[in-house]
């Protein structure tokens, strides 16, 4: 239903009509379920990524539940800030926020070396990098053409493949690692997610991974793989506790996080452009700047409140284009739902109880899709001639190499090894430097000077 002030506008990429524009407010009877749809579209990623990090750095059940709870709470607050803004902080656009996949591998690297306190220290101290990019994004974005951006996004997916496979097998250190029931359960989730996505349309297709995880979760119970004891022990309501795990500061960890903030800034630029593109216009400078600043500020807040950095969620940009509902009022309702869920530990405990093979089956799809997005950026926007192929080859080999063969760095000082042990950092810096120094169309726009990312 469209109110009298709503103009129906054609979406730029298909014949879908925009039912509600950015400033339109659907009736609550429509807005609430539409907001819940955004929640369902982003819920799994918001929960899965903290679960992956928590499991990889060895947090126990109660700590993992708390991390998930904080992830939901911060995502809700960050979404509301993006929608309505506080001064220059926020794009005032329908942008759903959540834990950034860009940070998963770097934070696992930091946490495995220095502990969880170093993760939050790096998240907090490095966050101003993205705030600065928000103020000067027009100048700085020229350093990151599609060639560099695509390589980095591919590396995000590639460096997370071992994590997804380990979870699929039952989790590192589990007594039944690689057992048939683990692999079978992960395979069920994997096949179901792909099948629903490819053979169905509408909301079933959009929510295919979430549906597959719910089915896997239920199947795990008769297999004895679902432990819900933590749900009974969790409180119904609990207020957030700042710096619950303490905070430590290590220069190499901060550098790794800073580079990740640069990359997630480029992702956010693309999502903002994709969001305004659904109503057939370009983002304004204030919207772009406010969105990036909000990313940085809310990620800093996330570190204080024991959550991981937040960024815009591309799947929700796609949902806006699919439904024709671009109302920021609707997305604000999604943010309110997230805040409510973030204050209820029992909800986080249910998510934290997800069996490792179920999470692994979903992670294979999620992390594989991240790689595919990077591949699409390169294939669609970069001329694959000798210079650019050389940059891709060198960056990917070095990035994946240090991530999968960490023993080659054992003779280096710890502060150096953790820095060069980040495949995202090594591969990303390699791409950035080679793009600047190799002859050809390089320099400040090398490898194709088109817009870095858009959805």
TrEMBL record:
Report how it sits in the membrane.
Answer: Multi-pass membrane protein
- In terms of domain of life, where is this protein from? Archaea
Segments spanning the bilayer are 39-59, 65-84, 91-108, 114-137, 144-165, 177-196, 203-223, 329-352, 358-379, 415-438
- This protein's major location comes to membrane
Molecular function GO terms recorded:
xanthine transmembrane transporter activity
Q: Which UniProt keywords apply?
A: Cell membrane, Membrane, Plasmid, Transmembrane, Transmembrane helix, Transport
Does the keyword field hold Transmembrane? yes
Q: Which residues form the signal peptide?
A: none
GO CC, any one term: plasma membrane
Q: Which PROSITE patterns match?
A: XANTH_URACIL_PERMASE
Quote the PANTHER family the UniProt record gives: PURINE PERMEASE C1399.01C-RELATED (PTHR42810:SF2)
Name this polypeptide is given: Uracil permease
Q: What is the scientific name of the source organism?
A: Halostagnicola larsenii XH-48
